[in-house]
Amino acid sequence: MFCDECGKNPATVHITKIVNGAKTERHLCEGCAKELGDYGISFQPNFTIHQLLAGLLDSAKENPPTMSTAPTVKCPLCGMNFNQFSQVGRFGCSRCYNTFENGIEPILRRIHGSSVHTGKVPRRTGGEIRLKKEIEMLKKEMELAVQREEFEKAAELRDKIKELENNIK
Amino acid sequence: MPLEDFIKESAGKWMDGDGPESDTVISSRVRLARNLSEIPFPYLMSKEDSEEITKKVNKVLQENSPNEFELVTMRDLSFLARKALVEKHLISPSLADNDNGAAIIRYDEVVSIMVNEEDHLRIQTLFSGQQLEKAWQLCNKIDDILEARLNYAFSEQMGYLTSCPTNVGTGIRVSVMVHLPALIMTGQLNRIFSTISQVGLTVRGLYGEGTQAIGNIYQISNQITLGQTESEIIENLNGVTKQIIEQERAVREVLLKERKAKLCDKIGRSYGIISNAYIISSEEAIQLLSDVRLGVELGLLENINLKMLNELMILIRSAYLQELAGKELSPYERDVRRAEIIRNRFAELDLGGV
């Protein structure tokens, strides 16, 4: 079927208007439909990031549900279950991340290509994590120092690591 | 500073037009998404909780930097005033729609903290030209100040926890606003844009979501927030922006060499129309201002400065226009008033042609 208006392009937009019981039908190509804009249709893709995500989640659900994604599991703080989350594409509270952990990881990997945070760690809330990360870094440095046979430096680093480890306990 | 001044005073510091690479980069922005633990995210939280958070955040900032920040609550603002703040890039459209939302804005408009938008906190900093590192340093500092007194929702594995999983991890969104008229004129932009998405970045027009943005102004930002450090994300965006603006400059140079008369004609005509029109729509004004901006960036229009053009870009937006007028205006009245404001600004300059 070709466009009613220009007769050249295939009609991809089909409009049925019923005004006071009188029905009119029009078949247009996208270009003409846009020009004749008075049909009140918007060609702006009408979906948000949340709807898009919801789609992602739906396909993730096809796999057999794990413990945390079963509809009976509700977040203790906000009361949300995984189904609701996959409908709105947003979590209810920060505890949801804990509650639905198994379901979330594959989603994060799909969105970001990774599921492990490597950036900033908050000073206070992340105090211990910060220390752990610093210790990891120092340990790597120490190994390097040993490889280079810089034993004095390695010893210094070892003492520093011990000190930090004591802070954690 | 009372709230009216954020609206009436058209110039925020980022509009000065004096930052690095200001011939192509208009502004740089960093935004951090943060949430408090043990409180549902804004769309599920109670009014009481939302007021409590606003109070807490405001208290921390006021005690830490007295007389630097102003609290603006959405409930107290008219629809037009909210939209005017959106047009100034101080708050987002979705905050404007939320009665429980608030913004705490630094007087120079470099920092604004949105409270109860999609996340409890959205800390953002806005700088002139290409200054992402500076914007990040300041944002990071304010984040530390807040975190010292507020309990953030943070997980060792997943980082800062956000309402939408697309922001989780660093919670960072960095973006630059770039003016790319030469790449558009020569039809080269789409090719560049299609490659950008392959490195985890995204581009959209400043006005409208379509590929063909009016005013030739685009925003480039990161999409991935997890698995990369903040510095990596910034370096990535800086690297890509650098390449794009180098291409834009190269094309400008070619145009100047080989099509100078045509280029000057376009700029000169746009300048003539915009400085003399009596009725002008915002689309037309934005398009013409882009041509004039190009003239300034190329050094062809010497008496006009970028600051004036940046201010005009905000002044001519419809809610802003009406807020300044102090009343609602019909579309026709807006077009007349818009033209008047632009004419007056240009008349103050006293300048020659191209």
Task: Give a description of the structure.
The complex is a heterodimer of chains A (169) and B (354). Chain A is mainly α. Chain A has three domains: 1-43, no CATH class; 49-112, no CATH class; 127-168. Helices cover 48% and strands 8% of the residues of chain A. Chain A has helices at 30-35, 49-61, 82-88, 96-99, 101-112, 127-147, 151-168, and strands at 13-19, 22-28. A two-stranded antiparallel sheet of chain A has the order 1-2. The longest helix of chain A is centred in the last third of the chain and has 21 residues, at 127-147. Chain A starts with 12 loop residues before the first strand and ends with a helix. Chain B is an alpha+beta fold. Chain B folds into two domains: 3-252, Creatine Kinase, Chain A, domain 2, CATH 3.30.590; 259-347, no CATH class. Helices cover 46% and strands 16% of the residues of chain B. Chain B has 13 helices and ten strands. In chain B, the strands form two sheets. An eight-stranded antiparallel beta sheet of chain B has the order 2-3-4-5-1-8-10-9, covered by helices on one side. A two-stranded antiparallel ribbon of chain B has the order 6-7. In chain B, helix 3 packs across helix 12, helix 9 packs across helix 10 (282-297) and helix 10 (282-297) packs antiparallel against helix 11. The chains are: A mainly alpha (169), B alpha+beta (354). The A-B interface holds A 44, 49-50, 53, 77-78, 80, 89-95, 97-98, 104, 107-108, 111-126, 129 and B 35, 37-41, 43-44, 118, 140, 143-144, 147-148, 151-161, 163-166, 168-170, 172, 200, 209-210, 224-230.
The residue-averaged pLDDT of chain B reads 91
Helical fraction of chain A? 40-55%
CATH architecture call of the largest domain in chain B: 2-Layer Sandwich
Give the termini separation of chain A: 76 Å
**N-to-C series of helices and strands of chain B:** HEHEHHEEEHEEEHHEEHHHHHH
Oligomer: heterodimer
Order of helices and strands of chain A: EEHHHHHHH
Spatial ordering of strands, largest sheet of chain B: 2-3-4-5-1-8-10-9
The overall number of domains of chain A is: 3
Low-confidence stretches of chain A: 38-46
Largest sheet of chain B: 8 strands, antiparallel
- Catalogue the unreliable spans of chain B: none
Number of domains of chain B: 2
Strand content of chain A: 5-15%
Q: How many E strands of chain B?
A: 10
Helical content class of chain B: 40-55%
**CATH topology grouping of the largest domain in chain B:** Creatine Kinase, Chain A, domain 2
Largest sheet of chain A: 2 strands, antiparallel
Mean pLDDT, all residues of chain A: 77
